[in-house]
Task: structure prediction
Amino acid sequence: MTGTVSVSGVRKAFGETVAVADVSFELGATELLALVGPSGCGKSTLLRMLAGLIGVDSGTITVGGQVMDDGRRRVEPEHRRTGLVFQEHALFPHLTVGDNIAFGLRSVPKPARRDAVERWLHTVGLPGYRGRYAHELSGGERQRVALARALAPEPSVMLLDEPFASLDPNLRTQIRADVVSVLRSTNTPAIFVTHDQAEALATGDRVAVMANGTLEQLALPWEVYHRPKNRFVAEFMGEADLLPVDGAGRCELGAVGGREGTLAVIRPTNVQLGDLGAHPTAVRASVTLAEFRGGTWMYSATLPSGATVRSVCPWGLRLAVGDEVGAWLSDPDATATVSAADS
Result:
């Protein structure tokens, strides 16, 4: 199962609304790409164009070296060798699990089809489920069957649109890990659409961040988080406080480089709180919010300038609103900067 996807200058509008504007990227032969952005940013529209469910207005989509859509000619979905998994699972309720998985293998001889179904049931961790129906399965089991059905015809690429959104948080994490494991074990390239930033960072070999129909940044997960390209990416891809940087390239929490008109991106994991004399770059701060998160505390603290920063601290560091503390950056080199002019 190998294949690549090439998207070049793709555009799609619905009347006056431009849903996708001049998007381009390449998907590696075994790569998992997480496509993330807020609701209405165009990510699901882009996925549906890749699947062939809707056509592009302009630009080109190529899968496995074959042009699928160039705005003039479009290969129909059933001829694209793309596997689709949606949030709703979309299993046929009148068919058994085995028949659901075998649905895309109707041209395969029956003995080979039976063997393939058994193989995929084992691959997704559901041996013995062949004769069950969708209503007899949990949400996680239905999602695994949907994945097996999509993978059984050996697609060139898998397209997954919010596949875990309907699952409860604990099950979601486990099923996500299972799905990623299956895709990697079969070397199947895939594009995950999600609005969950943590899920995108945990899942993708690379992360593509979309906003208003455009691709804002496409990079490795750590680069998207620690080296955001602009203010939108900085604020969307995780909790961040933006502080002004002066002409000397300094902000209240230490040297970060930069100039006037530049903002320092301060992640809560990079802010330390403690005694004012505990660190040479510590500045005085006043705790304004204490939020217990189980293994950690999230504190907000106001700096002398009036700006507020957040800090993730071990659960054993007990601070109260109104406490005076020292605040400093644990790793100034991990502090990115973005233009203050970015919207």
Notes: The first strand starts at residue 5 and ends at 14. DSSP finds eight helices and 20 strands in the chain. The radius of gyration is 24 Å. Residues 169-185 form the longest helix (17 residues).
